[in-house]
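A reminder before we start the practical. When you read a complex entry, don't treat the lines as separate problems. The point of joint prediction is that each chain is placed relative to the others, so the output describes one connected object in space. Small molecules and nucleic acid strands, if listed, are placed in the same frame. In the example below there are two entries. Take a minute to note the order of the lines before looking further.
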Amino acid sequence: MMIEALIGVALLGALVTFLAPNRIAGKLAFAISLVPAALSLWMFTAFDGSGNALLDGELAFESQLEWIQLADYSISWFVGLDGISLPLVVLTTVLTSLAIMSSWTPIDERESQFYGLVLFIEANLIGVFTALDFFVWFIFWEAVLIPMYLLIGIWGGPRRKYAAIKFFVYTNVASLVMFGAFIALVFGLDVSSFALPEITDAMLNGGPDGFLGVDGTTLASVVFVAMFLGFAVKVPIVPFHTWLPDAHVEAPTPASVLLAGVLLKMGTYALLRFNFTMFPTEIIEPFVIPIATIAVISVIYGAMLALAQTDLKRIVAYSSVSSMGYVILGLIAFTQFGVGGATFQMVSHGLISGLMFMAVGVIYNATHTRMVTDMSGMADRMPVAVGILIAGAFGYMGLPLMSGFAAEYFIFFGAFGSDLLTYAPIFTALAMFGIVIVAGYLLFALQRAVFGPYHLETDYEVSRAPLHDVAPMFVLLGLIIALGVAPDLIFEMITDAVDPLLESATGGEL
Amino acid sequence: MAVFDLPAWAGLAPALILAGTAIFLFLLDSLSRRSMSREILAGTATAGALASLGVAVWFTVAGVGAPGMENGHGVITLFDGGNAFVGDGLFVVDQLALFFMIIVAVVTALVAVASYDYMDGHAHQAEYYSLLVLAATGMSLMAAANSLVTIFIALELASLPSYALVSILKDNRGSVEGGLKYFLIGAVSSAIFLYGISLVYGATGVMQLDLIADELAGGDVDPYGGLLGLGILMLIGGFAFKTASVPFHFWAPEAYEGAPAPISAFLSSASKAAGFVIAFRVFTTAFPLEITGDVIGVDWTLAFIVLAIVTMTVGNFAAATQQNVKRMLAYSSIGHAGYALIGLAGLTADGGELVMGAAMMHLLVYGFMNTGAFLFVALAEYWGVGRTFEDYNGLARQAPLACVALAVFMFSLAGIPPFGGFWSKYFLFTGALEAGLLVVAAALVVNSALSLYYYSRLVKAVWIEDPVVDRDSLGQPTGLYAAIIFAAVMTVLLLPGFGPVVDVAIDAAAAII
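Here is the predicted structure of the whole assembly.
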């Protein structure tokens, strides 16, 4: 019942916060969010990763409850954790707490509604990462959209309405495509429930029989593509990334933190859970080269776009496109280090991008501008916040002893030795070039914004940020360094979960 | 469950309680016209509806109407004189009837509670509530009617009070106009329906639904295929009117817009559901497809397939272009009639009970989410904020709780998780797929995607847009708030609690097909 407790506390907390007066909503939401954070950390220590999500064996904290029986199919409340989902759940709960604290300064109207929505998102995100029945998963997956739409639409920047609608329409249409495809797949399979383990088992042992006159292999291939497209929008990868910079730039800082930190991981997590471990390698094989190409393009193109920006927040936003490209590359490599590294990168990027958005948010609160061209010499006025920004940038660039380095190293190592991906070394080498551009745009931006003489002309007093703005960033920095120094804190449990999945998908030829 | 055995006529208790309540309200009014308070009137109407609901739920749980159960727990038939003319009885209380009695009672209770505030200061309080409950009685009887005669009488019992209710705001031009339009089209439809009945009677020589099926199976009707076909077509016209389906939908936007908003909620939810239960019963019991198809030479589900697609498309496209919130909801309710028609369109297939069950579930969820949406409009009218989307801008600043409820209704109507509307639309979708109606399934998905546009527009207006004008702080009428919040809570709770609903609906559908 631990997972239910996590979700339940967040949901109930959302309701309580929503009804609370604005004055205390921020502190109240923070206090409530500490409960799931503490619970998930306890689960982290008590975790037993011997079971596996999509294969035999019982998962950690698993619970299954009959829900709806319709004709030949049953839908059940089915949740559990394995080594892939647990780090993401912890990331969600911790990042939510920190995001709430970091919004005490910037959010100054309709607070109780804001914090209520943030807690509501948290509950749904935990649901996405723990659900093992397609319907439970899909309900959480879609339910994330509504609060995010409102967060961007109500508290966002000047173009918030456009950004909110674009975000909603893009991701909802993608979800519909994915949903339809998956239902068709289940109809074609010989299964009696929507439980992911059962569907995976059926997929890996025989595949679908066909549906509505389409033969099984074609159906599986079409579904693979449709689901990939559905998740690709969420990730997002080029060319489906255009909603992301809009949403990011307009969203209020805490929403950006959650959006980049956790929401994007929904896409990559779903790719890992559905596309890359549910389908046998025969189905995946024809798409390996195109997907790897898209991944490399995302890395390079995302980085180039970031290079061209002058808005600090946009730079961080576009860099997510590039970082998510690495994740896709790691996934498609289909090796222990590739897939494991991709999962590690999800966590790492969640921490680093969260940190970066918070730092940019703090600077924006103080200066009321995000334009790199307007800023100069911020280091003198806001030494702590700027110091953290620089540290975060180094993490992004993949400096050793920070989590970004470990993640990228795993991915490149895994991709380089991929059996599935032909010309793996070439793809890897191209993707590695992305690091150079990343370093380029980050150093370029920092050099212009942070160093040099101070000349910002504002009516505001630009001064040091208050402690509650800086404290969450220190926590994140600590986690980034901890994971960089000792990747095995989570990498071991990730590979424990990844290995059997790869083994079953490749028929034991890992 | 039953502690003691009840006589057979007690099976109609949900409808009888409503009838009794209506008469009691008349009596109350005539006893002391001046001292009569709104509290007592609204309270009585609500209590009657809740009692009816309680009994219907109790019957369902106790197994009344479940086929194959003995000792008064099974299907109850009434007025079966044992002669060849009335066959299995003029009324039948089965699971299907009880399911729809529940929907009618729920909506009536919600509307009665909400009317307490909405009708504040209105001259004809007692008349309003008794007409409301009387119309509900008619709808409840429609659910149980088992003969073309009783169906027609129940239909008129539901319709006549509805005409009056729509135009009860006598000083309001829209209300009177809407009522007049509703009445005229209603009268024409009744005539068509009645003509259809006479044609069916002419072809078969019987009125009772089971007997019609027997006659068809007997083969005597074969020479009158054309006559029967025409009759069936006219019956479909009658249902199309009652359910506001294309091409008999023209009255709906005007009537819903002009009527007091709680009455719009009542008509678009309960009255529509009642129309559907008749269609379900008539077309499954009286005109079994395999026989009727041979006699009239056409598969009548074809008509419903076309009707379903056209209705949902027309409704959704028209809704998307509206500037007036109430009209938008009116057109969207036409669209939802199109979704529910899938239940009739898919009866042909093996999984017919799935499709019909899905349509029933959709009507139940719709009873909460659509009623709630119209009650929010009632709340806005109570506040006097105006009727267009712009007028609704920024309402969430002053009434966040009601606006949360509105967002729940809108996203649920659009079929987005985590609300009840997601399940019912999903089941309709899979039902259509299982029945092989690919085009219908595709139309459902496309229309749902389109509907998100105008539903989210209302959410955007109240939550995201800034108010155009400065408003004074808005009141919080207890009755309206209670009804809206309850409807919203139910719309959410129907997601986790859908299991029993699925069982009841599928069983009821399977029993009648």
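Discuss with your neighbour: The longest helix of chain A spans residues 336-367. What might explain this?
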